[in-house]
Design goal:
This protein is an alpha+beta fold. It is 65% helix and 10% strand.
């Protein structure tokens, strides 16, 4: 099965769930925008952040601005990045401004006090990040500046993280000059929370930890994991690239709640052992 066909099969799976997640995610993000970001002039990046700045100078509906900007960016994406890179942004780009318009009527009946902007920023960031996470988890994007980020990544040869920093950082900085640097700090709080929540929703909360252990006492540590902790271990033959010496690498995945037991057990058995621990978001197969 070729690579393109595999990707197509992946995108066909669980269509109803994916489209439901997309709609729910767009609704939550749009509601967060109208309830918390737009009324309090909190610019946290993206086309929605630009719309907050623009509507401060020009009397234009934010949803209309987001729609026009998104369509222009979709056209640019098609000609610069191609159809395959553009198609998953179409639904999000068109539907998000529609949801912004829809939820603006809901926001008309709900008003929050301006006494605690930090709380507003936290709730807004959590809501928007949760919604965006649902969209990304469904295999879509909201388009907008995501397209610019992909273009920068492809043609400017910079990392995805640096591209996000460059685009969203520029938008937040522009917001600082318009609304003041105090508001910009709240925008940074929102930007951080959106990034954090998006990752958590897409990847989930890690319930397991994966250990990679290099030790001369691999048999003792292996016995400890199997007999005391009740988990399986894979022994991998490895060669040090610099020293050219052969080593045994132990690989095991354990529940997060047992992290302390294994960490301390390794140090007691072999204080000179080298090990690294990473989050394991999904564990499938095996016994």
């Amino acid at each position: 099965m070729d690579q393109v066909r595999i990707l197509k099969e992946v995108m066909k799976k669980h269509r109803f769930t994916r489209y439901s997640q997309l709609l729910l995610g767009l609704f939550i993000s749009a509601l967060a925008f109208n309830l918390f970001l737009l009324p309090f002039d909190i610019v946290s990046g993206g086309v929605n952040g630009i719309s907050i700045i623009i509507t401060n100078f020009v009397r234009i509906n934010p949803a209309s601005f987001i729609m026009v900007a998104s369509i222009v960016l979709l056209i640019i994406s098609y000609f610069v990045l191609g159809w395959e890179a553009t198609k998953n942004s179409i639904l999000g780009s068109i539907l998000f401004p529609l949801f912004v318009q829809l939820t603006s009527y809901i926001a008309g009946f709900i008003h929050f006090s301006t006494n605690d902007i930090l709380l507003i920023s936290i709730i807004g960031g959590v809501m928007y990040g949760f919604g965006a996470g649902l969209v990304y988890k469904a295999g879509f994007t909201t388009g907008g500046t995501d397209i610019i980020i992909q273009i920068l990544k492809k043609y400017a040869k910079i990392s995805f993280g640096n591209a996000i920093l460059a685009i969203d950082g520029s938008i937040v900085l522009a917001g600082a000059f318009v609304f003041g640097f105090t508001r910009a700090m709240y925008g940074i709080v929102v930007l951080y929370l959106v990034s954090l929540l998006t990752d958590k929703v897409v990847m989930g909360i890690s319930n397991s930890k994966a250990f990679y252990i290099i030790t001369n006492k691999y048999d003792l540590i292996s016995d400890f994991i199997i007999e005391e902790l009740g988990h399986s271990v894979t022994v991998i033959d490895a060669v040090g690239a610099y020293s050219n010496t052969k080593n045994k690498v132990l690989f095991t995945v354990i529940p997060t709640r047992e992290y302390f037991k294994l960490k301390e057990g390794i140090e007691l058995i072999d204080s000179g052992a080298f090990f690294t621990v990473v989050d394991a978001y999904e564990v499938m197969g095996g016994e």
